[in-house]
Write a structure and sequence with these properties.
By secondary structure, the protein is of the alpha+beta class. It has one domain: BirA Bifunctional Protein, domain 2 (2-Layer Sandwich), CATH 3.30.930.10. The protein is built from ten helices and eleven strands. The strands form two sheets. An eight-stranded mixed sheet has the order 1-5-6-11-10-9-8-7. Strands 2-4-3 form a three-stranded antiparallel sheet, with no helix packed on it. Helix 1 crosses helix 3. The protein is globular, with a radius of gyration of 20 Å. The two termini are 23 Å apart.
Length: 334
């Protein structure tokens, strides 16, 4: 296995030494097969590809934490590099019913470690339907990706000491956040209900269950428009897809579609309070709120799949830096 040489950020014109290595070429072919596998599933299931999505955006392009947005001077206006196109996809889902997009997500992650990147590929889907249907689509996408890599990348997998038979079948278990906390408290007694789960928690869960959908997270720790559960208002109808080696590899949820509830949830969210602290206003989300006002918006749900973490899972790589064709974190610049 070739050594990955990281380029110091102080030398932005110097290419990594292994940029043209056989292992790198194998990884590029594997990624190509991964995307073909994902597209094969969504196209066979009636999803419409949405292209030319915005990558220079307002704060609505943030996933959750607006402090991780990269700032851009856009002709004298404050703009940002997109982290997700979720809210834009939501607007067109009532009309096209099933949509997907392939984007680059940018996050100002200071950690240059085995889990964090500053740029990574997201495969996003939105559809008219509930969480159970969404989990079915996520399962189908991952299975289609694994099948495509296994069939088309036999020689390439050998560079990672993998054979097609080694690729996991992606049979997912499913547990709730509350069940996970109860399990984890045996090893992490300080973990309390309502805490966000960390990498070591996810690792223990995947060691026990393999690929697993962790559902119904506490409302306060999730994005403002995730739909509140009707039977237990403490939680939202959401799931994180946890994969061995990678941990959280997709975030997914039903979307709140009632105008009053969307507006209330936004204004009570930590994201909104931080926006106001930074000088933002309601106007930053006006176009999104207006799309729900005086309209009968149907139940819809969606997800974003981190393709680098899917690659980790398929290739058995504990370090995300080994799983991407081009590495960009806080210590590298091409």
């Amino acid at each position: 296995m070739s050594r990955t040489v990281l380029m110091p950020i102080s030398q932005p014109t110097q290419a990594p030494y292994d940029l043209q290595s056989p292992r790198r070429m194998a990884l590029i072919r594997i990624w190509d097969a991964m995307f073909r596998g994902a597209r094969r599933y969504v196209e066979a299931n009636g999803f419409v590809g949405v292209h030319n999505m915005p990558e220079i955006v307002g704060v609505t392009g943030a996933c959750e934490n607006i402090d991780t947005l990269f700032k851009v001077d856009y002709f004298g206006k404050q703009a940002y590099l997109a982290q997700s196109d979720q809210l834009y996809l939501e607007l067109i889902t009532p009309y096209l019913k099933r949509v997907y997009a392939e984007i680059q997500s940018f996050r100002m992650e200071p950690e240059a470690d085995d889990r964090h990147l500053t740029q990574f590929a997201l495969f996003e889907i939105e559809h008219l339907g509930d969480l159970d249907e969404l989990i079915g689509h996520l399962t189908g996408i991952i299975q289609s990706i694994a099948a495509m890599v296994a069939s088309d990348c036999v020689a390439e997998l050998a560079h990672f000491d993998r054979q097609p038979a080694d690729l996991p079948a992606a049979v997912f278990q499913r547990i709730t956040y509350s069940e996970a906390v109860e399990i984890l408290q045996h090893d992490f007694p300080d973990l309390a209900w309502g805490d966000d789960l960390k990498a070591n928690h996810e690792r223990l869960l995947t060691q026990r269950f393999g690929p697993v959908f962790l559902t119904h997270y506490p409302l306060p720790i999730k994005f403002f428009n995730m739909r509140q559960n009707d039977e237990d208002p403490r939680v939202v109808n959401s799931t994180d897809m946890l994969l061995p080696f990678a941990g959280e590899s997709a975030g997914a949820a039903e979307r709140e579609h009632d105008y009053q509830r969307v507006a209330e949830r936004l204004r009570s969210s930590d994201m909104y309070h931080r926006l106001i602290e930074l000088g933002g206003t309601d106007a930053d989300f006006a176009w999104y709120l207006d799309a729900h006002k005086d309209k009968d918006v149907p139940l819809h749900s969606g997800a974003g799949i981190g393709m680098a973490r899917v690659a980790q899972y398929l290739l058995g790589l504990a370090d995300i830096r080994q799983a991407v064709p081009f590495l960009l974190n806080s210590e590298t610049l091409l």
